[in-house]
């Protein structure tokens, strides 16, 4: 594809009063820059961060209509371009009030199971039915504030999301209602087809441009006039010798930051231990999952105490639980990465995944321009799971003394990156770096 500028007409259907009663149109021209040189923009994803809707347009699509209407159900890009696998889309509204709607995609006919549980695993609602291929909607009514886990599973696998509830306590108990099939047929759009996308004056919009294996994100309120937005792909130069690494039962993508090559996902390797069990030097890699839930390990990666992560070695730069040719990063390698993205006051935002899929608002400064894609995995301290959606911290292989190891930390309320020592018994996330 040899496209220097990606011209997209975004037609905003504005419902605010207009003197002549006609709708206003805004035109946005997108272009890409890589190390100061004009580059292709192959596709663009647009997310409405306030109303939890999204869509994606690919060359040669050129016209997109923003329509003021309720945001209800999955995003267009997930429907038209998602993999043929079981999917659970984020609940709307979120946080949940008295009721919230969840949409599930079942790729093949069969029995669809749905379970809603508390974070301790106690099931509070369920559903089971033979259903064909399609999209199905559910209404969940929580009975108290807190966090619930909505899981759908069947022959096509298992997927889960977390539902945060701010509903007042009600005596009726939790309720899960099956609404039925969602009448939606996704398909490839032609250049002249209008995609439907909800928008309100004036929501916060996020534009992510894609160029080959690179991506860049721009956060903006809806434009008040015709404008040009430029995606800077300079900081997402993927130069790792390998793009994926198969380790255990998982595949890990790689991302280059400067001359370093990192895992793009948190490590999830080892035998799961419950809170009552203590990891030991027994030749077996052992892990913990947030709230003792395996699905948290699948999404956020596992959590490890320092000694288990190092496999009881003490040498800075040891392989630890990483695969061959990779090792647990040193404190120097971590500070080098932060310096490349820095200063520290903004480096955290460049490491954090954008949006609010795995971070609480405001997820300050998050644009993931490094490609590192840090998620708010939380931590475990004295067996207590805490700070998921708010915080994440990554171990280094540097030991200060018998009791303390060095780590870096990211938070939802700041764009900065912190660093310092943590008790080795604290269970944190792990990323591997290439030798």
Structure description:
The structure is a single chain. The chain has helices at 76-81, 294-300, 306-309, 331-341, 344-351, and strands at 5-12, 26-34, 37-39, 43-48, 53-58, 63-67, 87-88, 100-106, 110-118, 123-131, 134-141, 146-154, 157-165, 175-181, 195-198, 204-211, 214-221, 227-232, 244-247, 250-257, 260-263, 271-272, 286-287, 326-327, 379-381, 384-386, 391-399, 404-411, 417-423, 433-434. By secondary structure, the protein is mainly beta. It folds into three domains: 5-73 and 189-232, no CATH class; 79-181, Sandwich (Immunoglobulin-like), CATH 2.60.40; 244-434, no CATH class. Helix 4 crosses helix 5. The relative contact order is 0.12.
**Tertiary shape:** globular
Provide the helix percentage. under 10%
Largest sheet: 6 strands, mixed
Q: How many domains would you count in the coordinates?
A: 3
Question: Roughly what fraction of the amino acids lie in strands?
Answer: 35-45%
Count of helical stretches = 5
Question: Which spans of ≥5 residues are poorly predicted at pLDDT below 50?
Answer: 1-24, 61-83, 184-196
Number of strands: 30
First-to-last CA distance? 35 Å
What value does the average pLDDT take?
Answer: 78
- Provide the structure class: mainly beta
Instruction: Indicate the radius of gyration in whole angstroms.
Output: 23 Å
SSE order and pairing:
Blueprint: E1 5-12, E2 26-34, E3 37-39, E4 43-48, E5 53-58, E6 63-67, H1 76-81, E7 87-88, E8 100-106, E9 110-118, E10 123-131, E11 134-141, E12 146-154, E13 157-165, E14 175-181, E15 195-198, E16 204-211, E17 214-221, E18 227-232, E19 244-247, E20 250-257, E21 260-263, E22 271-272, E23 286-287, H2 294-300, H3 306-309, E24 326-327, H4 331-341, H5 344-351, E25 379-381, E26 384-386, E27 391-399, E28 404-411, E29 417-423, E30 433-434
